[in-house]
Amino acid sequence: MKSTSMKSISIKNLNGQGVTIAANVYFPADFDESQQYAAVVVSHPGGGVKEQTAGLYAERLAGSGLVTVAYDASYQGASTGTPRQLENPYIRTEDVSAVIDYLTTLPYVDNNRIGAMGVCAGGGYSANAAITDRRIKSLATVSAVNIGQMFRNGWENNVKDVDALPYVVAGSDARTSDANSDELGTLPLAPMKEEDAPNEELRQAWEYYHTDRCQHPNAPGFMTARSLNQIITYDAYNLAEAFLTQPVLTVAGDQAGSKWMSDDLIARAASSDKTMHVVKGANHMSLYDVPEYVDEAVSVLTPFFARTLK
Questions:
Q1: Which among 169, 225, 256, 287 is least buried, having the fewest CB atoms inside 10 angstroms?
Q2: For residues 34 and 45, is the Cβ–Cβ distance under 8 A?
Q3: Is 28 helix (H, G, I), strand (E, B) or coil?
């Protein structure tokens, strides 16, 4: 990978919530401000921050000649907004477009060559943004999660929609509790303790967020419980059959319990240019940071964006 440089910035979010988004912009080697570059917005997983896997992929893609941005979601990380750790999927989708708003103000970014990618829930949010925002010319995901599907149907798609009704009740009750308390209720987005993990794959999620593997003080690993009301009925791929016409690449591990959500995105996208790359031996979490699997993911992401943002 060619060496890159990085600059930390603040982006005024124009979506009406008065939030300032904290972001890191990665520049390719030999960056020349007088030239124009293709750009890619990289969105982090639910419960993550820009310094983790999103920043890793943003830096690696910048090494291939792109301007890339990894950012903290509104209400999370170093971005502003209260309540803290709100995981409202509609706002997170709008965050992608807010970062693109910023990119369009930069003379060195070609507005006709902007792409989006995301990891885990960030992949789902990026897909939803691509459906609604035509400035996104191509879409890539790594270990994609449609967060509404995940909460409704379970990690391995073995729960019926109707059986998720208790989560809607819990979110509703949380809102009442929040209105009558000084402290907001929370729920884990990944296991908070090793013993809470139901399987090895999700044990690795605990390891990623809560050990030296990749823990970060801005990523506490939980969300507000009131977020359930928005999440349960959210479909990141809503109307993909009609409007997701841009080129699409999904990258998923063959051992990932979440792979079915990448399969679903490929099946539903209206695009005539859609591909899934399956990484043998990788599970959901290993595509976050395990070098051999990240290398393989980048080896397909790089030519994909070179072709679709040329």
A1: 169
A2: no
A3: coil
Query: Nearest CA to 99 among 79, 119, 121?
Result: 79
pLDDT tens for residues 50-86? 999 999 999 999 999 999 999 999 999 999 999 999 9
pLDDT at position 15: 82
pLDDT at residue 307, rounded to an integer: 98
Neighbours of 6 (CB within 10 A): 14
- DSSP letters spanning 147-190: HHHHHHHTTTT-S-GGGGHHHHHHHHHHHHHHHTSSS--EEESS
31: alpha, beta or left? (left if phi > 0; alpha if psi -120 to 50): beta
Q: Are 81 and 17 in contact (CB under 8 A)?
A: yes
Arithmetic mean of pLDDT over the chain: 97
Give the tokens for residue 244.
């997701």
User: Which pTM value belongs to this model?
Assistant: 0.97
Cβ atoms of 288 and 208 within 8 Å: the answer is yes
| Residues composing the chain | 310
Contact between residue 57 and residue 48 where contact means Cβ atoms under 8 Å apart: no
Residue 266 phi, psi dihedral angles, 5° rounding? -65, -40
% of the chain residues with pLDDT over 90: 97
Residue with tokens 């063959």: 254
Question: In 37-145, which ranges are continuous DSSP H helix?
Answer: 55-62, 89-103, 121-132
